[in-house]
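Q: What does the assembly look like in three dimensions?
Context provided by user:
Components: four
Sequences:
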Amino acid sequence: MPDRTPSPLDLLDDIGLHLLRELQRDARLSFADLARQVGLTAPAVAERVRRMEATGLIQGYRAEVNRAALGLRMTAFVRVRTHPGRDAELERFAAEQREVLECHEVAGEESYLLKVGATDVHHLNRLLVLLSAFGATHSTMVLTTKLTGRVLEPFA
Amino acid sequence: MPDRTPSPLDLLDDIGLHLLRELQRDARLSFADLARQVGLTAPAVAERVRRMEATGLIQGYRAEVNRAALGLRMTAFVRVRTHPGRDAELERFAAEQREVLECHEVAGEESYLLKVGATDVHHLNRLLVLLSAFGATHSTMVLTTKLTGRVLEPFA
DNA sequence: CTTGAAAAACGTGATGT
DNA sequence: ACATCACGTTTTTCAAG
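A: Here is the predicted structure of the complete assembly.
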């Protein structure tokens, strides 16, 4: 048994890349529209996309919502130097708090890096107080986001 | 002239939130499916979603692709303390490099925080060398990502 | 992968409450 | 703001090439 996963390599030919770009740009394009873009028929495109999903190349389709419209007008990155043995607790806390947008375990002086949203400085402060229970924190406020959600291309 | 934007407040009732959750979970759901989920008809749902897009509440629909499958097996956050007057140059560089996934202007000792992808440590090192032209850098390698792409709920 | 075809599901616009 | 209906389109599944 050679491969466990059907290796997405053959999916990344010219047409596959074209499809991947289009779906990153607009995930709600119909198969018929996609077919017109890449010069195939709709069933052929549907099968390609289905294989991209099955191999895990495409992990899902997400609506991108305006955080500010939901009240999260500010963004911050918080580095946490966890107290010994509190890693699991911090991860559970991060998973429970809707304000925690991302949570990464990292190498270096701190062991975690969180991306958090907050309505205002008071809200952010409350979060930081809660986080300080797990370790020393260092936070960095985002002034303006210059770039996000880039369309990815293959590097390998 | 009261409001310039038709204020998405009325879009965030129970049904609106339900729709928003579903579309964050699976952006390719049909209007008919969405209608069944929330208990409305398809045309009603289509109009609601169209208004969510028009008001900017929904900013788009993106396919989420597996970065590792595209060759970007490692992720790092890089803080850059830019040299005086080089901010615009750094922003242009960040926009040009496909490896730069996010670029934020931040408050604190450093003025920029970048999220970058790379194929391996050599690739990452090449990036850091290029970035060092714009200022002093401090990079943090991601070991494992515990949380990302959370479904957002309103806070206001 | 294409073509063709057929059935089910879907999107859209008009109309009415 | 929503329901209903009607029409055209899309999706899906087959077949055969």
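Follow-up: Chain A touches chain B through 64 residues (CB under 8 Å).
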